[in-house]
Amino acid sequence: MRIGIRVSPLASPFTGIPVYVFNLVREIAKLDRENLYFLYTNKEIPLKFDLPQNFQVVLVKKPYPRLQLWYQIGLPLRMRKDRLDLYHDTLFLLPFLQGKIPGVITVHDLSGLLMPEYHEKKVSLTSKIIPFAVRKARRIIAVSNFTRQEVEKFFPHAKGKVRVVYNGVSPEFRPAPEEEIKRVREKYGINYPYVMYLGTIEPRKNLSTLLSAFSLLIKEFPHYLVLVGMKGWKYRGIFQALEELSIRERVIFTGFVPAADLPPLYTGADVFVYPSLYEGFGIPALEAMACGTPVVASNTSSLPEVVGEAGLLADPRSPEEIARKIRMVLRDKKLAEELSLRGKQRAREFSWEKTAKGTLEVYREVL
After folding, report:
1. pLDDT higher for 147 or 240?
2. Which of 256, 298, 312, 339 could form a disulfide with 294 if both were Cys (CB 3.0 to 4.6 A apart)?
3. Pair 278, 300: CB distance under 8 Å
4. How far is residue 312's CA from residue 306's CA, in Å, rounded to a whole number?
């Protein structure tokens, strides 16, 4: 069979959806040496795949690579030329001119559609195409049961064609040795014990509430708050909250961190906090658990499903509750050790190999 997969997210920084796309393709390449795969992108991909001969990266630049014209016109033409039997869009969209080629879409979350106030206008506009893609797709991959429920709630006609295929965690995420922890602490200027967050610096991630929670703890503990991630949309409000709380000297912003530095950063933290208001899955929480770091996460959306009993859950809109859960971990070494053990055990239930196997099963259903 001839299968097309959209890999254009890999031209973006290696977070979130790009992490999903990279690991999905890498694992499918290990499992399937028979079918032919065409990996479509409109931009050069900086990441290097070690792919077998049945995989081909296809650069679609016409009629214009930087606009949706490549996707809506150039891609369907190329798909027909490649005689596809199935097309999988990893960004929950499908071309209007796809024709009769069966489509599979991955829905990571519906926040762009349901919470437009937390996204840039271009994301909200693109999300308006999701209803078309949901209707047209032969199968829909949801990355969690929460996301499946969201899709079926807002698109009742999709019931029966949604399949849950969880995200995974790479084997690179495991407790790091002391020398690696020392290296990254020196690299990012982290000279004190710390509480860590990873994700884009933007309103949906609820960092203003995290800062308020941390401000309640600074007189009790010597810890710094290390915020790992790029500046996103409307990040200035977060810096304003930082100044209003007068805790700027206790917060470290690392900016974007390469993948190799993440396991030692996670391992070195005493607590990982993920207070996001809405997540379709929440890969950082899973990565932290795999590294043996106790996790405090939101009790909303998909995070209780991912974290399970392996972490502490808190109301993301309550700074007091978030602070209380962090305090519990920092004060109680026995609890921290128990959460570390539970987290590592929980993380072993998720792997990108399972993600690839589940995705291939969806392909087989369609084909």
Report:
1. 147
2. 339
3. yes
4. 12
Burial of 230 (0-12, 13-18, 19+ CB in 10 A): middle
Pair 103, 136: CB distance under 8 Å: yes
Q: Which of 136, 70, 75, 148 is nearest to 104 (CA)?
A: 136
C-alpha dihedral sign at 331, 335, 341, 347: negative
CB atoms within 10 A of CB 264: 22
CA distances 230 to 197, 200, 234, 235, 286, Å, are 12, 5, 12, 10, 20
Please state the rounded mean pLDDT for residues 124-148: 89
Residue ranges and CATH numbers for the domains of the chain are 2-168+351-366 (3.40.50.2000), 178-347 (3.40.50.2000)
Mean pLDDT of 39-59: 90
Decide: pTM greater than 0.85: yes
Contact 293, 269 (CB under 8 A): yes
Buried b (16+ CB within 10 A) or exposed e, 68-98: bebbbbbbbebbeebebbbbbbbbbbbbeeb
For residue 4, the tally of other CB atoms under 10 A from its CB is: 24
Torsion, Cα 257 178 350 286, to 10 degrees, reads -50
Three-state secondary structure call for residue 166:
coil
Residues 6+ positions from 252 with CB-CB distance below 8 Å: 188, 189, 190, 194, 224, 225, 226, 227
Question: 108: closest CA among 121, 86, 93?
Answer: 93
Check if the beta carbon of residue 277 is closer than 8 Å to that of residue 310.
no
How far apart, in whole angstroms, are the C-alpha atoms of residue 260 and residue 257? Answer: 8
Identify the residue whose tokens are 């539970």: 342
* Torsion angle in degrees (nearest 10) through CA of 147, 153, 157, 162: 20
Which residues have CB under 8 Å from 98's CB, separation 6+? Answer: 76, 79, 87, 136
SS3 at position 117: helix
Which pair of tokens denotes residue 113?
């559609």
